[in-house]
Structure to design on (584 residues):
């Protein structure tokens, strides 16, 4: 009888433990994060747009909390998303560039979100959450071989991945003006000519012994052949075979990806994940490929907006948001789901093509994507909904950050943020629920790459919101408000202006940053600048040197890192055919 009693006791203990785990998980909310790519703050109805139709996003804001000072940690996707995932300024993880290449440029480069960085997905996975990323990644893939997947989403806490490991570029569509292949072709053609001249010098000269010349000739022939091949390959538009890839977990399922299917595929995968994991808890990060150029809008929305292809794309992504929210409602998960909507940074302004509008609108705010610390490039939508927990139809004007999502969702999942590193985000729940009136952020630092361009000071004892610009990009042509003809504005060098004293604005009175304050007319000028400079000194003490993920070496195409479905370099496959068609 004694063994039987022990068995019963063991079974009872096991049952209680399972029940406790179930109850703990049942009390945890599902978490749905939705991020649009390159969406301007002024493109959304609830943020002041009256000509684009965004009813689903607007309704989400009506049912929850809308932030008006929600700030990205960088005005470009790779560093901004790194900060979002880690709750840390991108400079801390080496994802802030000190070179002329401010984002990852290749699927086959060795840079990316370091494996030792702890994303919120990893913590939530440890807390019993089923986690998934659907859509854009742009945080790298491999380090040393084409199969190590050291930067891959599955190595950063996501249990499921369906999407694009890179980012949309014009080459993905083919009909657009090339973004990568034209400069690549010119660069490698030049390199091949230099190697060719070196080869010719070795052949006709007698600089060393015959044996030494022999091996130098072989090496030069090899380099010449490789560089010539790359320049030739790029000229025939094969960049899309290398960068425009669709993956499911570690497997390539489309190479190149078919842009006309991407919206349907992302939506189908998001809805399917919700249906499969309705018993929760789950973390679903839907990282839309919309509204980044080349704006591959499906036929259902083509020509339906008042703002060309860009407007069509915005209205399509709003419809996709609505379908995902409908899936949450259909499964009875609305009241147990913490829902968040944002953009990774401001809208791109330099996108006019044959008089067709292809870029976003950032409302009253100056600048846009890739324009340093100007508000238009870093102020983004921030909408939260959790019925019964967060108030409805509420607006909060306090400064907040995309980095705040990290500690917020970790808190909701019952986890703790890492204690061995600086976490720059703040838990938003007290502010969202109204138990505190002011943001925990006194200072926010606005980086362009690894260069500090501006600092925001929320002076809590007054209504002032100061912002000092130490560096600003030089707009071209003068007065245009963007770097037209130059692509993304530079972060350093001859393309920027250094300000001493800094340009100072009070955003509470001048949110458009139209008129800088002067020491002669602003009595507090010296006091404010001194306070900000002390904050900068303290902030810099918290920075430690780390490997630069966007360095010249880490951000160059490496053949041995190229994900390839087929025989390299002729990579091609379509493993799922038309299986993603039909949902639109």
């Amino acid at each position: 009888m004694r063994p039987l009693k022990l068995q019963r006791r063991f079974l009872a203990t096991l049952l209680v433990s399972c029940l406790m785990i179930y109850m703990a998980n049942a009390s945890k909310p599902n978490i749905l994060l939705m991020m649009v790519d390159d969406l301007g703050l002024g493109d959304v109805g609830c943020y002041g747009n009256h000509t684009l139709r965004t009813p689903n996003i607007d309704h989400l804001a009506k049912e929850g909390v809308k932030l008006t000072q929600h700030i990205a940690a960088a005005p470009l996707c790779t560093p901004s998303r790194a900060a979002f995932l880690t709750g840390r300024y991108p400079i801390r993880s080496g994802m802030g560039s000190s070179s002329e290449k401010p984002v990852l440029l290749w699927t086959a480069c060795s840079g990316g979100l370091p494996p030792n960085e702890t994303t919120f997905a990893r913590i939530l996975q440890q807390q019993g959450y089923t986690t998934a990323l659907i859509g854009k990644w742009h945080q790298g893939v491999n380090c040393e071989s084409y199969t190590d997947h050291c930067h891959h989403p599955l190595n950063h806490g996501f249990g499921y991945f369906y999407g694009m490991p890179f980012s949309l570029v014009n080459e993905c569509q083919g009909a657009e003006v090339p973004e990568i292949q034209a400069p690549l072709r010119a660069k490698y053609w030049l390199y091949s000519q230099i190697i060719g001249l070196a080869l010719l010098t070795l052949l006709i000269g007698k600089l060393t012994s015959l044996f030494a010349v022999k091996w130098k000739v072989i090496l030069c022939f090899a380099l010449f052949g490789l560089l010539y091949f790359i320049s030739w390959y790029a000229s025939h538009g094969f960049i899309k075979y290398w960068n425009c890839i669709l993956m499911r977990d570690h497997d390539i399922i489309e190479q190149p990806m078919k842009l006309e299917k991407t919206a349907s595929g992302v939506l189908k995968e998001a809805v399917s994940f919700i249906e499969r994991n309705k018993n929760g808890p789950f973390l679903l990060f839907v990282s839309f490929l919309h509204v980044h150029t080349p704006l591959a809008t499906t036929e259902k929305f083509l020509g339906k907006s008042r703002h060309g292809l860009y407007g069509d794309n915005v209205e399509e992504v709003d419809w996709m948001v609505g379908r995902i929210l409908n899936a949450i409602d259909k499964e009875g998960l609305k009241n147990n789901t913490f829902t968040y909507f944002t953009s990774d940074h401001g809208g791109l302004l330099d996108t006019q093509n044959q008089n067709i509008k292809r870029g976003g609108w950032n409302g009253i705010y100056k600048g846009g994507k890739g324009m340093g610390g100007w508000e238009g490039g870093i102020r983004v939508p921030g909408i939260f909904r959790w019925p019964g927990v967060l108030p409805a139809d509420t607006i909060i004007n306090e400064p907040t950050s995309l980095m705040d999502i990290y500690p917020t969702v970790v808190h909701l999942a019952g986890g703790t943020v890492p204690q061995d590193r600086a976490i720059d985000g703040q838990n938003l729940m007290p502010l969202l629920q109204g138990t505190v009136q002011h943001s925990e952020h006194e200072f926010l630092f606005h980086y362009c790459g690894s260069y500090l361009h501006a600092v925001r000071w929320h002076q809590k004892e007054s209504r002032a919101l100061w912002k000092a610009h130490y560096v600003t990009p030089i707009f071209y042509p003068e007065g245009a408000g963007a770097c037209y003809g130059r692509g993304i504005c530079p972060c350093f060098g001859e393309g920027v202006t250094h300000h001493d004293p800094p340009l100072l604005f009070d955003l509470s009175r001048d949110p458009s940053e139209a008129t800088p304050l002067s020491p002669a007319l602003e009595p507090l000028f010296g006091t404010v600048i001194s306070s900000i400079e002390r904050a900068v000194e303290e902030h810099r003490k918290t920075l430690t040197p780390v490997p630069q993920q966007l360095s010249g070496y880490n951000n160059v195409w490496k053949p041995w890192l190229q994900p390839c479905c087929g025989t390299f370099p002729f990579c091609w496959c379509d493993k799922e055919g038309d299986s993603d068609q039909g949902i639109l």
